[in-house]
Amino acid sequence: MHLHGTAKINQNGHLEIGGKDTVELAEKYGTPLYVYDVELIRKRARAFKNTFTKLGVPAQVAYASKAFSTIAMLELIKEEGLSLDVVSGGELYTAIKADFPVEKIHFHGNNKSDEELKMALDYKIGCIVVDNFHELHTLHHLCSERDQKVNILLRVTPGIEAHTHDYILTGQEDSKFGFDLQNGQAETALIFAIESNYLNVLGLHCHIGSQIFETIGFILAARKILDKMSKWQEELNFTPSVLNLGGGFGIRYTDEDTPLDPSSYVEEMINEVKKETERLSLPMPEIWIEPGRSLVGDAGTTLYSIGSSKDVPNIRKYLAVDGGMTDNIRPALYDAKYEALLANRANEQPKEKVSIAGKCCESGDMLIWDLPLPDAGTNDILAVFCTGAYGYSMANNYNRIPRPPVVFVENEHDQLVVKRESYEDLLRLDLPFKEKTKI
Known about the structure:
Layout: E1 8-9, E2 15-17, E3 20-21, H1 22-29, E4 33-37, H2 38-54, E5 59-64, H3 71-79, E6 83-86, H4 89-97, E7 105-107, H5 114-123, E8 127-130, H6 133-146, E9 150-157, E10 179-180, H7 185-195, E11 199-205, H8 216-236, E12 242-244, H9 262-280, E13 286-289, H10 293-296, E14 300-312, E15 316-321, H11 330-334, E16 340-342, E17 352-357, E18 366-373, E19 381-385, E20 406-410, E21 413-418, H12 423-426
Helix pairs in contact: 2-9, 5-6, 8-9
Catalytic activity: meso-2,6-diaminopimelate + H(+) = L-lysine + CO2
Subunit structure: Homodimer.
Active site: 361 (proton donor)
């Protein structure tokens, strides 16, 4: 079993994270429970930042907050000196409440509403990543009404396919995101933005996918974009100061995954950009990247209590836990794979293979198939690793199940940073139907 970050098995045979016994955490806060290894998040953030510093390249490392966005998480990212990528008014509002430096906030999204754009302009955030012509024209109009100038990046699709899950490919030509680099859309958008008195084009942005284990996709994307930059410098007298190569850096969920170290991704991207800018006689741009999953994914562990079991002779044994697709929808949505162990019997050898079922009224609510475990029973604590990205952020209230709390652990201390939802919370926005109400 691969243990991540500060995770280890203590003298009691229990899983320990951040110096805290996870069995005690489960007793204190209940289950299901998200536990985050703060030291590992800090380590990853510093690995990305320090590589740019070591190589002397101006950069911004922006945490892609869609992976996991709470006030405490954004305060931690602020401590580490990162920038922030938000993709909705809600994420922007969370950043404002976390007192995140507005000049370091970048706003993404393929369908930003007028209200969201106005909110970004009200707070004077650092950059808006413009995704399409509708947004480009709307933003120009809003800024002209306010007589306000805003920094933008143009998101382009460079036609590069990353080796990843079909559902999360975003850089190929057939994508809902960005201006196509091949058919002239990107150039048309750039000309409009350059001619606007209110849009300051910092540069270009691309994102080729998620859970990527190689650098070749980033390298090919950089080459295509820099070739266009060279053309635009000559024909449009436009020289971008920023090249944002996005995120998508992979993590290890199971033995099938072979991610690179953060420094390896950064070093190869920098080397390619340096080589291509020299070849094309372009000034070296500031490089921006957007790690999300790679900062928090393997720093998160979800603790569950095991409840019922079901034996299907000669087929399989099911163990049901007190969570499931409401706190981790990725197995149902992406067929995502995870590893797990019994937190309260972490040093025991597996004796059987079981399949972990969630408690939702859905046959597809399965977390892990054919997991090797000791003889597990009611009230054993199951720890599922690498749930830090897109677990809490995609959590839902299907079957009216409350969402779990979140605890940060570091240096033998634990801190509750998100409360467990109550049944009262589920009804907070409900209104009664009255007979006299006319619909």
